[in-house]
Structures are given as C-alpha cells and as structure tokens.
Amino acid sequence: MLALPWIVYFDLVPIWEDMDDIKVCVEVWPNEKASQNYFLVVNLGLQYLLPLSIIIFFYILLFIKIWRRKMPKIVRQSSDDTLNDWNTRIVEKSKIKVLKMLIAIVSLFALSWLPLYAIFARVKFGPPFDDSTFEGILL
C-alpha cells in the first residue's frame, strides 16, 4: 500500500529525444515538493525510522525483562560465599553479553539500511547530478 503512489507517478520516458524506442522508468511527480514529502513520510519515516524505533523499543523491553530476572542460585553446603559471588558475576556477565548482542542486532539493521536512505536523501534533496558528480566514484 505504501508503494501505491509509485504506480501513478512512475513513467517510461525516452533517454534521448531523437531515439524514442530507448526508455527508462523515472518518477514524474506533479511537483518536487510532493516527491520530497512522500520520501520523508513514507520512505524514510514509515519504512526506516518507524521499524527501527519499534525494534529498539522492544529490544529495550526485552533487555529490561532479562536484567530484572532472578537467576537460580547454586546452593552450597559450606558457609563460604565465594560460590555465590562467582554465580552473581557469571549472571551479570551473561546479561552484559545479551545487551551487547541486542545492540549489535539493532546497529546492524540501522547501518545496513542507512546507505540506501542516505543515497535517496541525496537524490531528493541534493543538487542535481551532473558529469562531475560521478567522477570520484568512477575513478
């Protein structure tokens, strides 16, 4: 449903005016502002920032639940508390590992989609492309 406007605003246009048979599919919006607003709200907002926010929110809830959970303690016959201290350290280290894993998952999601949205933002809001735009990329 979010991509439905693209059905309306994408069109085949000739690459060169003298060759009508070679065409490329491009966005043809009524005005530039509509194109930019669609990108900001739908592409960036609903397809990147909203899912990222939901993932972060639920992983924070998951981590809070894990952090508050009481782990069963190993009971030892002697009065030595070193085993209980050891058990507590192991549990704390496990919780830190879970936190690191959750941060890695969220970071991986955010960083893997970020270049695509950065390129789209450059196309939508940056200056028009010319021949010098691609010189650094092609060299």
Automatic annotation (TrEMBL):
One of its GO terms (cellular component) is plasma membrane. It is found in: Cell membrane. Its main location: membrane. Residues 1-139 form the G-protein coupled receptors family 1 profile domain. The keyword Cell membrane applies. This is G-protein coupled receptors family 1 profile domain-containing protein. Keywords: Cell membrane, Membrane, Receptor, Transmembrane, Transmembrane helix. GO terms for molecular function: G protein-coupled receptor activity; peptide binding. SUPFAM superfamilies: Family A G protein-coupled receptor-like. The chain crosses the membrane at residues 48-67, 98-120. PROSITE patterns: G_PROTEIN_RECEP_F1_2. Belongs to the G-protein coupled receptor 1 family.
